[in-house]
Structure formats: structure tokens, C-alpha cells
């Protein structure tokens, strides 16, 4: 019998804090590990996600960094602004967050939407970004089939957040479809059942609209302007884009390192935290 996977078990023995702060007028939820005297690392989840995407990474990274995993603007338990969310809105919130914690510079690591936001931040605010990790990052292309699947599963999960509907959305992220992911499902159910979250998800899904997505996409000019040392991390079974797309992104960023993790989907930091933590920390620490 497979062992039950619990986020609380992942965090047992980890010195971490859950809390809220106000960034640019936005009440923002975070998970935090590590000491304030260490370099700052911010972990950014994907579309429709939340800080728990990084529960298996806080301990390892907290040893070396003042590590923050946040619920991004409009997501999780962070405030919902009540309008369609484009990449610039997330960047503005992230910069306000960094100012609030008094971080002049930070390393940014983003998965999916989080990678899109992190890359845009590195383009628009090069003085702020130390090192950059793009983990199965979005923002480089518009695939109508993938976009439609994300919208369909996401809206179904919030409009009727049964275990089955939320599990289908979680399993989209994972290479291993045999697991039930009960604890992740229960956590996300609680988030999706918040009053007003159906409207919030519609705002989150704005970037799956072809016209809105087109004006937010990153191309050779944007990727080529990134000056931060960059790791592009991809997976063998990413459901949103294949390995050649990850390699293409890396080829546009000057000096970028490219790594592929096998047997993982869209959440390699969760599916194979041992490998992810090693690759991630080797890069972030300049090893």
C-alpha cells in the first residue's frame, strides 16, 4: 500500500512560519523559512496555485536563504483585486512584496506562471534580480489546446470543488497519475471554496485568453535582455510544453543553464524534491 502523502508530514521538523504582510496595499500570505540575515529567495507557484507547491523545498533552501513562498496576487489566501490579471500586475505585486521585506535584491524561482512572472521581473527590474530559475515556465508560447485544458479543469474545480474535480486539476500537474494526492486536494478544496473564488479564478484565467496572452508573451527580445544568471529547468513529462521548448527558452537567455528532470510533470519540486533541491541549490549557490 502506498504511503499517505501529507503536507504536514513534509513540514514536520521544519522551522517555518506562515503569515501575512501587506505589500502595495495587498494582504499577502507567505510561508517562510531561514534567517533574515541570509540572501533572499522567493518561490513563485503556478496559475491557480498557492505557496504549498513548495512545502518539500522549504527546509533545504532555508539552510542557505531567507526563503519565501508566497500566494501570488489573486491566488490562495492573498487578496483578490477583482480584475483580469496580466503579468504586469503580478510583477508589480512582487516588487511591492520585496520592498515590504526590505530586500534590495533577491533570487527568484518560478514554476509555470511563476516562471513567467519571474522572467518578466528580471527584464523590467534587472537591478532587483540576483539569480533566476525558470521551472517549466510559461510565457513563451500560446498553445490553444493546452490553454483550453487549463481553463476547463480550473473552472470545473472552483465551480464545483468536489474531490474528483480538484483531483483532476492536481493530476494535470503530475507525471504519476496513480496517486490520489488527497492532502493536496483537501488543501486546494479549502482555497477554492472561499467566497468569491469563482470570480477570482476567472481573473486568473485571463492569461489563457488568446488576445490577452499575446500581449504578455515573452520573445527573443525579452529573454535576450535578461542579465541575471539563469537556470531553465524542464521535465520529461511537462503537460504544457515539451523539452525542446524549454531548450528554446534557454537558448534565448545569455549564458543560461539548462537541465531536464526525468519522471516529473509540471511540479518537479514536489514530485522529486531530492533531485530538484540538489539542482536548484547547486545553481543558486553558484556550484
TrEMBL record:
Record InterPro entries: AB_hydrolase_1 (IPR000073), AB_hydrolase_fold (IPR029058)
A Pfam entry, by short name: Abhydrolase_6
Record key words, sorted: Hydrolase
Positions in coiled-coil regions: none
Top-level taxon of origin: Bacteria
Listed GO MF terms: hydrolase activity
Signal peptide (UniProt feature, chain positions): none
Protein name: 2-hydroxy-6-ketonona-2,4-dienedioic acid hydrolase
Source lineage: Bacteria, Bacillati, Actinomycetota, Actinomycetes, Mycobacteriales
Amino acid at each position: 500500500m502506498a504511503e499517505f502523502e501529507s503536507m504536514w508530514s513534509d513540514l514536520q521538523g521544519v522551522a517555518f512560519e506562515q503569515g501575512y504582510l501587506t505589500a502595495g496595499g495587498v494582504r499577502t500570505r507567505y510561508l517562510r523559512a531561514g534567517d533574515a540575515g541570509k540572501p533572499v529567495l522567493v518561490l513563485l507557484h503556478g496559475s491557480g496555485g498557492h505557496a504549498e507547491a513548495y512545502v518539500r523545498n522549504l527546509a533545504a533552501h532555508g539552510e542557505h536563504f531567507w526563503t519565501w513562498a508566497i500566494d501570488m496576487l489573486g491566488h490562495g489566501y492573498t487578496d483578490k483585486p477583482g480584475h483580469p490579471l496580466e503579468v504586469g500586475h503580478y510583477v508589480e505585486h512582487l516588487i511591492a512584496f520585496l520592498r515590504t521585506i526590505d530586500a534590495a535584491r533577491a533570487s527568484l524561482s518560478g514554476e509555470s506562471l511563476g516562471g513567467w512572472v519571474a522572467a518578466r521581473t528580471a527584464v523590467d527590474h534587472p537591478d532587483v534580480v540576483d539569480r533566476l530559475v525558470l521551472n517549466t515556465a510559461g510565457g513563451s508560447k500560446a498553445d490553444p489546446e493546452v490553454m483550453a485544458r487549463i481553463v476547463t479543469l480550473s473552472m470545473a474545480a472552483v465551480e464545483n470543488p468536489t474531490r474528483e474535480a480538484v483531483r483532476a486539476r492536481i493530476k494535470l500537474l503530475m507525471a504519476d497519475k496513480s496517486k490520489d494526492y488527497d492532502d493536496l486536494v483537501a488543501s486546494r478544496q479549502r482555497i477554492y471554496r472561499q467566497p468569491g473564488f469563482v470570480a477570482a479564478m476567472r481573473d486568473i484565467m485571463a492569461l489563457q485568453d488568446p488576445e490577452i496572452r499575446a500581449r504578455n508573451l515573452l520573445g527573443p527580445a525579452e529573454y535576450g535582455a535578461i542579465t541575471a544568471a539563469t537556470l531553465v529547468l524542464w521535465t520529461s513529462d511537462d503537460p504544457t510544453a515539451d523539452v525542446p521548448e524549454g531548450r528554446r527558452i534557454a537558448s534565448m537567455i545569455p549564458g543560461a543553464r539548462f537541465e531536464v528532470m526525468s519522471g516529473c510533470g509540471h511540479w518537479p519540486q514536489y514530485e522529486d524534491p531530492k533531485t530538484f533541491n540538489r539542482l536548484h541549490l547547486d545553481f543558486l549557490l553558484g556550484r
